[in-house]
Amino acid sequence: MIVALDVDFFNNKVMMTHLLSMPFITPLTLGFFGIPISYWLIMGATMIASLWVSSTLKRRFAEHSQAIIHFTGAQVAEMMLRSHGINDVRIIQVNGHLTDHYDPVSKTVNLSESVYHENNVAAAAVAAHEVGHAVQHQQAYKWLNFRSKMVPAVNIASQMLNYFMIMSMFGAAMMQSGFMLLLFVACMAVTTFFAMVTLPVEIDASRRALAWMERSGISSSIDHDRAKNALHWAAMTYVVGALSSAAMLLYYVMQLLGTNRDE
Ligand SMILES: [Zn+2]
């Protein structure tokens, strides 16, 4: 995903685990021919929503990258840090595209090549968003703290989801047990909750970025709408991720209730 707090990459991996594990675990739990329509509906809706948001995000970013401003992403990040009195956060360039993130451990704002060097509204918006996370960190923003505290638990849960996926491919019988399904649902509950907690963190970082861009006069009013639009679509990727995660969780909770009833 595009504008990421360090753990956002991680968050992505969690989402991928959800998506990847579903086709294996569900059929194996229910038997290949008994897959209910609700499974396909959730799967289909998730796929369509993700594709729609990510393609819109790409299109909007390409558009807003055409709007040239005076400063590069790196300069914007530097100015925003200084104006918040933050002097112990470094700005570094990282490889790749859409790899931007803030790392609270090393206290670095990591900007992808194009965001770092280019001077357009999309780059400025992404850079300011990442500094938004640095400001959250400096001010001990409660949702960021809470999210950081969850990371060890989410690590364990997502690791276990990986095992579940492998297990369900090689040992279908293991997934037939109600206890395994319960464990699986518990892991999904942790990662879903994490995706939910990510939302206020991301939305707040964008809010801080836009407020600062307006205050500092970095962008004209037209550019400001562009920056807002770019960050809106970036936030939508997190919204879709959290919603699909919640839908999948609900689905497996229903499965679990069904399994228990049969026993
Ligand atoms: Zn972010």
The profile of the biggest β sheet is:
4 strands, mixed
Uncertain segments: 1-14
Radius of gyration (CA) equals 20 Å
Strand content: 5-15%
Tell me the strand order in the biggest sheet.
1-3-4-2
Rounded to the nearest angstrom, the distance between the terminal CA atoms is 42 Å
Bound molecules: zinc ion
Number of strands: 4
Helix content: over 70%
By oligomeric state, this entry counts as single chain
Q: How many distinct folded domains? A: 1
Instruction: Decide which structural class fits the backbone.
Output: mainly alpha
**Rounded average pLDDT:** 82
Helix count, DSSP H or I runs of 4 or more residues: 8
String of helices and strands: EHHHEEEHHHHH
Shape: elongated
Structural write-up:
The chain has helices at residues 6-30, 37-64, 73-83, 113-117, 121-138, 142-170, 178-216, 221-262; strands at 4-5, 90-94, 101-103, 108-112. By secondary structure, the protein is mostly helical. The chain has one domain (4-67, 140-262). The protein has a 4-stranded mixed sheet. The longest helix is centred in the C-terminal third of the chain and has 42 residues, at 221-262. The structure holds zinc ion. The site of zinc ion has 7 residues, from strand 1, helix 5 and helix 7.
Task: Output the keywords.
binds zinc ion; 263 residues; 75% helix; mainly alpha; four-stranded mixed sheet
Quick structural overview:
With about 260 residues, the protein is mainly α. The protein contains eight helices and four strands, in the order βαααβββααααα.
